[in-house]
Write a structure and sequence with these properties.
- This protein is 21% helix and 24% strand.
- It contains six helices and 17 strands.
- The strands form four sheets. Strands 2, 3, 4, 5, 8, 10, 14, 16 and 17 form a nine-stranded mixed beta sheet that branches.
- Strand 16 and strand 17 form a beta hairpin.
- Helix 2 packs across helix 4.
- The chain starts with a strand and ends with a strand.
Length: 272
């Protein structure tokens, strides 16, 4: 049985979508701002390159999201989708996920993932940024390539609840970055961020629901709505509940996403 632990949350200091700097990233980790936007992360031709590669290879996996007529389709592997399985089950699929990932990147002249890691290393030159590794099992998969045109239901991404027995649960902060490779015109495809970090109280060992939870949890919370833009990256704190609307007919919401976790020693790991 889980009980919500709603805490008084300070208002965001600004609703301006600030650029990626060390100072701004620190503020994002402290829940002081809703999100960051990296404008012009990729050129139009690089965006088209990714979408063409996605279409050529195909997005053959589907998120298990109750209530969505068109759940996200993707290439890769998410730990969250395997949270009810064993560690052995998850890590048995990592190599195949990397093969799928490389099949897409082989069609392209650039990598959004390597570009993002380069930007992070520029602002934190004294810290390490490495692919997450699980003792006794090996490396995680990182780099979801996906179409999210059908919308996303209210949820929060909090590994200290969804991956309690994994090393990724030990991160002090969990940031998600989302690169958008297609124009999304009209009123659809927008993401709402709720300024109420997801916290619950449970007995030791109990499972915590981080999707499909009662909307009353975000009642009265400050919100920020961001619009995806072709070529831009949005970063936000994934502990804040979030959701997005389906795109208008004829539109597509294409891109990639990965988590960045900050450890207690200041170093970083990434995974999906």
């Amino acid at each position: 049985m889980q009980a919500y632990s709603v805490r008084k949350t300070a208002k965001w200091k600004t609703h301006e979508e600030l650029p990626l700097t060390r100072e701004n990233f620190e503020a994002l980790c402290r829940f002081e701002i809703p999100c960051l936007r990296i404008k012009g992360f990729a050129t139009n031709s690089e965006c088209d390159d990714l979408v063409s590669a996605m279409d050529a290879v195909g997005l053959h996996k589907t998120y298990n999201v109750p209530g969505l007529l068109e759940p996200p389709r993707y290439v890769g592997l998410t730990q969250f989708e395997k949270r009810k399985a064993t560690k052995e089950d998850y890590f048995a699929e990592v190599d195949q996920a990397w093969a799928e990932h490389e099949a897409v990147l082989a069609q392209m002249c650039w990598s959004p993932f390597e570009r993002m890691w380069g930007l992070m290393r520029e602002i934190y030159p004294e810290n390490t940024l490495n692919l997450a590794e699980e003792p006794g099992y090996g490396s995680y998969y990182a780099g979801i390539i996906r179409e999210t045109s059908g919308g996303g239901t209210l949820h929060a991404d909090v590994t200290m609840y969804s991956a309690r027995d994994y090393v990724i649960s030990r991160v002090a902060s969990q940031i998600t970055w989302n690169f958008f490779a297609s124009d999304v015109e009209g009123g659809g495809g927008k993401t709402t961020l709720h300024n109420r970090p997801y916290r619950v109280q449970t007995a030791t060992g109990d499972k915590v629901q981080i999707e499909g939870f009662d909307r009353s949890y975000v009642d009265g919370a400050e919100t920020h709505v961001y619009t995806p833009a072709k070529g831009d990256v949005i970063l936000f704190n994934s502990h804040n509940p979030h959701e997005w609307t389906a795109v208008d007919e004829g539109q597509r919401r294409m891109g990639v996403s990965t988590y960045i976790g900050r450890l207690a020693d200041g170093n970083f790991i990434y995974w999906s």
